[in-house]
């Protein structure tokens, strides 16, 4: 578990943490980002020694995404055949018909703007672009197969922009090798099969297969834009790399990368280093991160399938599905992520406004160091250690289903300490210092092995539906919070163990009941709650054994009398363990109760509440 919980005791070692000198300053940068600096000093006292640790972290926090711009030339896959130059590849030689380029053996060097139509096979040679700073060069791959053992088969040294157009109904291949590379090749050596020092665009409707045995597949020192084509990249390291940005509007992209699938890594300029995806079909298999952006990662459309293995060379163990330094923004698209690390991760914020997300993660489903906000979309986290995690979590809308071995939703400050990463991790997590969980709408169903809602701070619920199948062991609780859990609207049901069971706070304006049963109930045993007039409030079949239930609903009224049944049968339709539109046949009439306060408790919980009183949840 990644949170510090005051009700859990570590008897083998006692740590006294003294937090001092916490300073946060904000400087607004380009592209709607804020650069914040936080310094934390922690004194850890053990036995007779004291060790002081100071951690300073600088994080760019995004308030909005950045999308790549596409001009007419980026989107157009047509060219003037009457003015285009022809490049005919003939094994070990090149025939050139036109102007603006020279041939030297198996190397073609383009020195002028224009369109160059390339066809044929080049066994071991190179297409080089060395044009003017303001020149646009279009390379039309028209059934071209280009290989080079000593450098990048396509190498753009200078131009304003180079556009690679994949001609309709053509298959094109670019392959590099390691056999002819100099042993002292440095950072200036082109490190991709298709390498550009300036802006690069790929469009068209043909296909391109890139085999990069040396390092990266397709890389540029500036912007990489993709507006079409069927592109397959098999790379020893990163598959697609744009230092300043990667923007995708359309195309079918299949990558198998030893490193990252897609990466934008400019860390010097807060307005750059971003990835934006507006469409296209992606099938990404990566040894490291699926898609990594230094600043923001924005997805507004497309169909993405991402699998990360965590087997990248160089010792990196970061294997996240979507990863960004400042912010991840999802407003549309369909995403299927199977990651050995966090499925969605940001050192700053994550904001989900739409889209369909299918997630299986070896760590967190969605993690944001600073803030996670969900305003819509459909999300299924079928496998995770912790489902959602951030210092501040706000859910306003959307459909969210979470299955976790630990906490379903974990609200805790500090960086993610549950998985290794290349960045410096913060060494402490704060208790309630700005942490907050707000549920204002949406539909949330959680099946957790640990705490279902674990908030190291207050919880506020004003609307929405929350269905919890919580932990079976008494070391965890379905609800776990610091301070208060105030409910003013919505529907909440939480079943789980009774050892650490908690109920909402008396500060609520909507009534709750909490029943702690005298013995553990088997998984699948129906719980039925109805009013004195027979109105059904809840019929539920928990997925695991349980001994406690918390129910909060607008139908529970002050002075009302209610009955709680165990067992029986129902003819209703089951959704997330809740029965609807059916007839309940009673089992055991377990208890009747009358609502006298905001929280009505029956039976004693086995744990301690936040104030140290027995029977957690009694206020």
Verbal overview:
With 619 residues, the protein is mainly beta. Among the domains are: 173 residues, no CATH class; 122 residues, Immunoglobulin-like, CATH 2.60.40. Helices cover 1% and strands 54% of the residues. A hairpin with a 2-residue loop joins strand 6 and strand 7. The longest helix is centred in the N-terminal third of the chain and has 4 residues. The two termini are 27 Å apart.
In terms of quaternary structure, the protein is single chain
Number of strands: 56
Could you tell me how far the N terminus lies from the C terminus, measured between alpha carbons in angstroms?
27 Å
Our estimate of the beta-strand percent is over 45%
- What share of the residues lie within helices? under 10%
Give the count of helical stretches: 1
Judged by helices, strands and strand pairing, the structural class is mainly beta
Shape estimate? elongated
What's the average pLDDT? 86
Report the major sheet.
29 strands, mixed
Q: Which segments are poorly predicted (pLDDT under 50) over 5 or more consecutive residues?
A: 1-31, 36-59, 418-430, 607-619
The radius of gyration computed from the alpha-carbon positions, rounded to a whole number of angstroms, is 29 Å
List the helices and strands and how they pair.
Blueprint: E1 16-28, E2 33-46, E3 49-62, H1 72-75, E4 85-91, E5 93-97, E6 101-104, E7 107-110, E8 114-122, E9 126-130, E10 136-148, E11 154-158, E12 161-166, E13 171-176, E14 192-196, E15 199-204, E16 207-212, E17 216-220, E18 223-235, E19 240-242, E20 245-257, E21 262-264, E22 274-277, E23 281-286, E24 291-293, E25 296-299, E26 303-308, E27 322-324, E28 327-330, E29 334-339, E30 344-346, E31 349-352, E32 356-361, E33 364-368, E34 371-383, E35 386-390, E36 392-404, E37 409-411, E38 436-439, E39 443-448, E40 453-455, E41 459-461, E42 465-469, E43 479-481, E44 485-487, E45 491-496, E46 512-521, E47 527-531, E48 536-540, E49 546-552, E50 561-566, E51 569-570, E52 573-575, E53 578-580, E54 584-585, E55 588-594, E56 599-602
Parallel strand pairs: 4-8, 7-9, 8-10, 9-11, 10-12, 10-13, 11-14, 12-15, 13-16, 14-17, 15-18, 16-18, 17-19, 18-20, 19-21, 20-22, 20-23, 21-24, 22-25, 23-26, 24-27, 25-28, 26-29, 27-30, 28-31, 29-32, 30-33, 31-34, 32-34, 33-35, 34-36, 35-37, 36-38, 36-39, 37-40, 38-41, 39-42, 40-43, 41-44, 42-45, ...
Antiparallel strand pairs: 1-2, 2-3, 4-5, 6-7, 45-49, 46-49, 47-48, 47-50, 50-55, 51-54, 52-53
